[in-house]
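Subject: Protein record for review, amino acid sequence with backbone structure tokens
Category: Structural biology, sequence-to-fold work with a learned token vocabulary.
Format: Residues in single-letter code; tokens as whole numbers, each standing for a residue.
Body of memo: The sequence and its backbone structure tokens, given next.
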Amino acid sequence: MNSSFKRNHSSFRDPDAFVFSDEDGIIYRQLNQSYKEHYLFLKSCGLYDELISKKMLIPHQEIEGCIFEEKNHYQTILPEQISFISYPYEWCFEQLKDAALLTLRIMKQALKHDMVLKDATPFNIQFHQGKCIFIDTSSFEKYSEGNPWIAYRQFCENFLAPLALSHYLGDNLNTLLATFPNGIPLETASKLLPFKSRFSLNILLHIHFQAGYKKQNTANKKYTISKNRLFALIDSLESTVKNIYFKNTSIGWTNYYSETVLNTDYVASKRQIIETILDKLFIKSALDLGANNGFFSEIVSSRKIETVSSDFDAACVNELYLTCKKKNTETILPLVLDIANPTPAIGWANTERSSFLNRSQFDLTLALALIHHLAIGKNIPLSKIAETLSSISTFLIIEFVPKNDGKVQLLLQNRKDIFTDYSIENFENEFQNYFTLKSKEVVKNTERVIYLFKKKQS
């Protein structure tokens, strides 16, 4: 075994293949001997070339010889690299919906080439250059006439259940996939869904009926299904997914810049300051925390900077994702994230799916109009905020909002002001424990200040 390579903690469930990386973080996939027959058929039947041409599957190069584990090795492949790995519980409704539809389209194409998907998990999908793409080359198997789709229930639990719950309950419930990383059990989904969901024939069939299906006394029964019926099943699932949509019941922040009093000189001045700073930086990646509808994320990404645009408000993220789709934006990845409670490490031994912070190594972080929400809204000390932000990126653009600002006064309206340390002087002192101050500028017609910091070398 080559010690310069490391096996990915999330890649151990499939005996046919696993993912590993080199010391520079380059991702490889090893295909084992047990997958040889399926891989050769995938390449020879035309399915691989078709999916690549339609940008539905991540392309790869074949690597000569074994570079990692010799045991069971058949072929090593080097896939095109993804700039940032995200998880389905960090996606908005429309992202999960697109991932579901992609899975079904791939399954239909596979059937046409006498292959099937042996699993249907959203972890097989990432967002790359603005679109979702399938990344698990070893998920394809040769089709056997009469066999049912083994991943049918998995698809319903991982895609259909959270989408249906969001549709009927009016909230972004993709986050439940962090609690149920193997999919929301259909029994649970059926109990949570309102009674009116049973009037949808497809929801009744794919969720409620499946939830009530009992496996006992069926162990010796072998069910068969024709290929035409499999196509009909996929068509039914596709129709179901297409006809559910996100009902935004949020009273959140989707109209922050269009309806707030801070929408004229303030935004123009703030934009000018940010653009001046960006002109001086040579960076490739950025994280926008509390991005709202992505106004400043678009300014950053327009400079060909790969930008993760995050907000706790799923409606804002959903709106941004739809905007990016409409504009064919390739350099923004919208994610649902509460930086006060970021995605934890979950799964086997708490290492199978890494935390958001462990995945976050950016050149630049933007934290605009955010500090008061964390320090006053969430009672997080400035020292803790500075320490965490210093772990994410080299540069930090952060906006300090003073206590006499109208937005801070709203936060304090119905609570006692216990925030004696919340001052611009203490803010600068705490952040300069971790950063070097490069510049600061007051936003026009306000007392808000935008800072550029650079992380101190340890």
